[in-house]
What we know:
mainly alpha, single chain, elongated, two-stranded antiparallel ribbon
Amino acid sequence: AAKSNLPIAKYQLGAIYEKGIGVPEDPDQARQWYASAATDGNQKAMHSLGVLLAANPAQSAEAARWLRAAAETGLTDSQYNVGILYEHGTGVKPDLTEAAKWYAIASVNGDVEARLQSVRAWALRSFAWPWAAQRVCARPIAAAGVPSTSAVRTVSGTGTDSSSFENGSPS
């Protein structure tokens, strides 16, 4: 099906190679299949390609481009990840206003963790001394059990594994 140019099939094949489901893990094959599906407009492939590329600092600008493309299609996890990229300046120029905006968008779309990060990013942006904002915001966020925002997350925070394939598509 993937060779028939079906974007969902290309995406699924990328996930299979990324996770080594029934085949040896092969990040290069995963990247190629994700890129093909992403180019065809598959939003989960855009996201997965961005996450895969984000693991390599030399490819962070391309990762940011794909994550933003997925975010603009409405994929909540990508919206959250774009916030992370802007907050940390990974593949993009650091911009706390833009980070807060993307966290807020993800929050409106139901991401509870993004809601806390949005408030934190707005606070960081508002303080003259970022170290002070970090001290003020760190305790409530840590108390809420929110993990660090230094790493991007996979689709729905779970990635793709053999248990997520239902009705022929990963969730």
